[in-house]
Amino acid sequence: MDNEIKVVIIEDEKEVREGLKYLIELDPNMAVINVYDRAEDCIKDLTEKDLPNVILMDIGLPGQNGIEATHSIKKQFPEINILILTIFEEEHKIMN
User: Fold this and answer.
1) Rounded CA separation 18/96 (Å)
2) How far is it between the farthest Cα atoms of the chain?
3) CA–CA distance, 74 with 91 (Å, rounded to integer)
4) How far is 49 from 61, CA to CA, in rounded Å?
5) Would you give the DSSP letter of residue 40?
6) Phi and psi of 37, rounded to 5°?
7) pTM beyond 0.90
8) Alpha-carbon radius of gyration of the chain
9) Is the pLDDT of residue 41 over 80?
10) I want to staple 39 with a disulfide (CB 3.0 to 4.6 A). Which of 32, 45, 69, 71 is the partner?
11) What is residue 50's predicted lDDT score, i.e. its pLDDT?
């Protein structure tokens, strides 16, 4: 499908990652093209030829956190939309 929304999930909790993938793929207009438990792996794999439209990014990741990864990805690929997932309530983390 040409208008399909391509999604990448970056989430370190396996159950959450799998649950998000399941829910997204219930929509016939969306496809999860990859899932990662670390942001560095996603960043390494991103190429111009098959970019996602949306990345669902956990904020609390091992290694590079979601805030740092978002800055890195947006610098290289500003056209990718990134939605941050968090359970944090601290305003400074959310505003970053």
Assistant:
1) 27
2) 40
3) 22
4) 26
5) H
6) -105, -5
7) no
8) 13
9) yes
10) 69
11) 84
